[in-house]
Structures are given as C-alpha cells and as structure tokens.
Prior knowledge:
Elements: E1 5-11, H1 18-28, H2 37-42, H3 49-59, H4 66-82, E2 85-92, H5 94-98, H6 104-122, E3 125-133, H7 138-148, E4 157-161, H8 173-181, E5 185-190, H9 196-204, E6 210-213, H10 221-229, E7 233-236, H11 238-243, H12 255-260, E8 264-267, H13 272-275, H14 279-290, H15 294-306, H16 314-326
Parallel strand pairs: 1-2, 2-3, 3-4, 4-5, 5-6, 6-7, 7-8
Amino acid sequence: xxxxxxxxxxxxxxxxxxxxxxxxxxxxxxxxxxxxxxxxxxxxxxxxxxxxxxxxxxxxxxxxxxxxxxxxxxxxxxxxxxxxxxxxxxxxxxxxxxxxxxxxxxxxxxxxxxxxxxxxxxxxxxxxxxxxxxxxxxxxxxxxxxxxxxxxxxxxxxxxxxxxxxxxxxxxxxxxxxxxxxxxxxxxxxxxxxxxxxxxxxxxxxxxxxxxxxxxxxxxxxxxxxxxxxxxxxxxxxxxxxxxxxxxxxxxxxxxxxxxxxxxxxxxxxxxxxxxxxxxxxxxxxxxxxxxxxxxxxxxxxxxxxxxxxxxxxxxxxxxxxxxxxxxx
Length: 329
Ligand code: HPA
Ligand code: ZN
C-alpha cells in the first residue's frame, strides 16, 4: 500500500481520461475532433501552460450533465484511493462550464453526488475549491462567486487558475475580499510560469493560505525566507512541471532543494489524465529522479495533511497524521 497522503492540487476537469472523454462524448452526442483515444493521446505534447489549457478547455465539451460530473469525480476518487489518497481538496472551474451554457447547480451537485459517497466508496474525505479563471475579467469572477452562493455549504474555498502571465493576483483583490467575508479559504496558483512577485502579491493582496505551484519562489532568497518563516505550504506538481516545461527534466526539479531550504512542500498531480500520473505516480517519480529519502517522503505526506483544510475536523487530521507516522516503507 502506498503512503497515506492528501491531494491538495487537483483540477477535476484534468482527470478526464481519454476513455472517459470518448464515453461521455458518445453518451451526449458530442463530436470530438480526434479519431480515437490513441489519436487524442497524441495531442498530449505540450509546449507550455497555454498549449495544455487549449486542449483542457476543448475536451470539457463532453461534460454536460450532473451524471457526467459525478462519473468524472468518482473515477478520480477510485484512482486516487488506489494511490494512497485519504483526503482530496478538489479544484473545479465553473466559469468554463457556465460559458458553455451549464448551470452552477449541474456542476456542483454532480460533483457533490460523487463526493457524498467518497468516504463510503473509496475511504477518501473531500473538500471542493472553486477556482476563478484568471484570464477572464474580475467582474466575471465576482459573478461566478455570486452564482455559487446557493452552494456554499459544499464549497470550502476559492482558488485562481488558468493562464498566469499577464494576469497578476491583484486583479482579483475584490473577489477574494468577498470570498473571505463569506468564510471561504483562499489559495491561488502563483509562480508556475509567473514571476516570484506574483507569489508575494497572492499572499499580501489576496491573503492566500497556500500557494499552488510556487516553484519560482526559488528565484528570490528573500521570498523563500518569508515562505519558510511563515510556513506557507506550496502545492507542487512535479510531473506537470515537466510536461508544461517549467523544468526540463524531473532530475532538475527543485523539490529536493526546496525541502532542504525548509519550505513546506507537498506533492500533487494537477491534471493527472494529461501529465502522465496520479499523485502516487508523482511520489514515485520524484523518489527515483531526485533520490528522496524515506524521511523526505514521510515529510511530504505529513505536510499534505498539515496543509489541508481539515481545521473543522482535527480528530480526522490527527488520525491521518498517525497513519503517516506508522507507515512502513
Ligand atoms: N495551471 C494553471 N491553470 C490550470 C492548470 C495548471 O496547471 N490546470 C488546470 N488549470
Ligand atoms: Zn493547477
């Protein structure tokens, strides 16, 4: 059995495997511009974040009904559980679906149906994090949060994703203030392709409690020192970074140096259907490419629960943490 872990950086739309994409396309009468799953997999060669996002948004066309979102989430939870995930904080991108004519209710209730069964079916506790698309306007983000108001009992926090460069965190100051006033937790992608200044801005202007990716903090000694001092968790996604060319090869990934620097790192899968592996695969890959010790792997698993939004269930967090300490490699 793999080491118990929490997954904190996972876009549910990024778990759409080619087989499920074709099955849903058939069920919904949607035509995909690929002959078969093999032809689709051929398209999984990305130059950067944008080239991935183009395909990611295109394939969302197959998601039409509550049942589609339920099936998508259920498939992810089964795979995640098999790789040792005990707790998952799941991002979703409602703006991309609202723009296609779906309702917030279709998306949230559909995901919710799978999440309601996740503990019983897969032994995984879950949270949902609504992400704003940063290449859309601040007004659109505010309207999206408004549309989510009837569903806030199902939503733990807000995040910020999509094309980073040119869309600094400060653009979303107001919607993050509204989210905070609603009692929502706050995270944001920063420092994936964008500069270290975006990480600082996410902390100072948006008040984020975790930074998604945060890889480029390593370009600023001052920022690293702050992140260490304030114990700000970073949700790293090593296989994603290789596929989207944030790093050339896994052996060059700064994760080991980041841990050595005292940063609170976690390892996650981002968009596992597209990047060649789920979270356990990411653990295995960094273990072999970077030669991480068992102590470091245990630290990563421990960090994942410490950084999770389980503050409303400390008994559960303690149970998960004791599973990590008791784990035998
Ligand atoms: N980065 C930014 N936005 C995203 C990603 C990512 O890796 N995956 C899905 N949306
Ligand atoms: Zn991401």
